[in-house]
Write a structure and sequence with these properties.
76% of the residues lie in helices and 0% in strands. The protein is mostly helical. It folds into 2 domains: 45 residues, no CATH class; 216 residues, MetI-like fold (Orthogonal Bundle), CATH 1.10.3720.10.
């Protein structure tokens, strides 16, 4: 395990470097000028050139790239062109909202996927099985932004049960929790659907194993056979799916946070793209990639806890 973790750690560096390099040069090809976005089309040529010089945008692209890498090695992600504030400060202000939203989306999806997946496998071809199939089809087919708009229309505008935008105070307060329900449900719908069908398939495979038949032959109660012997061994594919879908959740959070006006990192990044705020785009992209890689590493470690037969060499 130690050797495996060490290898994964050293692979993290070139992965991040390749991605940052790609993002840096791709952004440079995007049409638009952040100086014109900040000053407007009525600005004089002298004001435009002066601001472009102050921001370092008049230098050759290669020198801008080397300056960016130099700042990165010192832990500096740069200064936002639009906000005129450090990128790390902007990220630190928004990341609690995004993490809370993502966490609730995962919780929401698992609270639905675990019972639905197990029931669909245990009661195969029953109403539970067909219901889980319907949930999966709807969840994987409906776009995140469209589902968010439907939830806003139904539960926010028509029924007026839940707020439709913003944070609404402290995240840990009841008002803050109510503001999170609709965006978390919208964001977690795809994960709910995919996890339900994957757990059903995994449970069906495990229930045919010899040790399950042996447990039943010993006279163990059915619920004990299912939850103690079958369920735990069926979790590995689900852990893999949840881990891989975290990237999808991060991507979906950009749209979800925009639809619900949620002040998170995703909305900040979308706004930065519109404003051509290069340092914010580069810095947030780098941090998100590092977060996903670390989460994947933690998921690999969790396999050993879930299944003692798994060993890394």
């Amino acid at each position: 395990m130690a050797a495996f973790l060490l290898r994964r750690f050293f692979l993290l560096i070139p992965t991040a470097l390749v991605l940052v390099t790609g993002v840096f040069f791709l952004i440079a090809l995007v049409p638009g000028d952040p100086v014109l976005v900040m000053l407007g089309t009525e600005a004089t040529e002298d004001a435009i050139q002066q601001l472009r010089h102050d921001l370092g945008l008049d230098r050759a692209l290669f020198f801008q790239y080397t300056a960016f890498l130099s700042r990165l090695l010192h832990g500096d992600l740069g200064m936002s062109i639009y906000h005129r504030a450090p990128v790390l400060k902007l990220f630190a202000q928004r990341i609690p909202n995004t993490l809370w939203l993502t966490f609730l989306a995962v919780v929401f999806s698992l609270l639905g996927a675990l019972p639905l997946g197990v029931l669909a496998a245990v009661k195969r071809y029953s109403i539970w099985d067909y219901s889980s199939l319907l949930v999966a089809l709807v969840g994987v087919s409906v776009p995140v932004f469209w589902l968010g708009i439907i939830l806003i229309y139904v539960f926010g505008l028509k029924l007026r049960w839940l707020p439709i935008s913003g944070v609404g105070g402290s995240l840990l307060s009841w008002d803050g929790f109510k503001h999170t329900i609709l965006p978390a449900a919208s964001l977690g719908a795809y994960l709910l659907a995919s996890s339900t069908r994957l757990l059903r398939s995994s449970m069906l495979d495990v229930l045919t194993e010899d040790y399950v038949r042996t447990a039943r032959a010993k006279g163990l109660r059915e619920w004990l056979v299912i939850w103690k012997h079958a369920f735990r061994n069926a979790l590995n594919p689900l852990v893999t799916n949840v881990t891989l879908q975290l990237g999808v959740l991060v991507g979906g959070s950009f749209l979800t946070e925009t639809v619900f006006a949620w002040p998170g990192v995703g909305r900040l990044l979308v706004q930065a793209i519109y404003r051509r705020d290069y340092p914010v785009i580069q810095g947030i992209t780098l941090i998100i990639v590092l977060m996903v890689v670390v989460i994947n590493l933690l998921a690999d470690m969790s396999y050993v806890l879930l299944d003692p037969k798994v060993r890394y060499r």
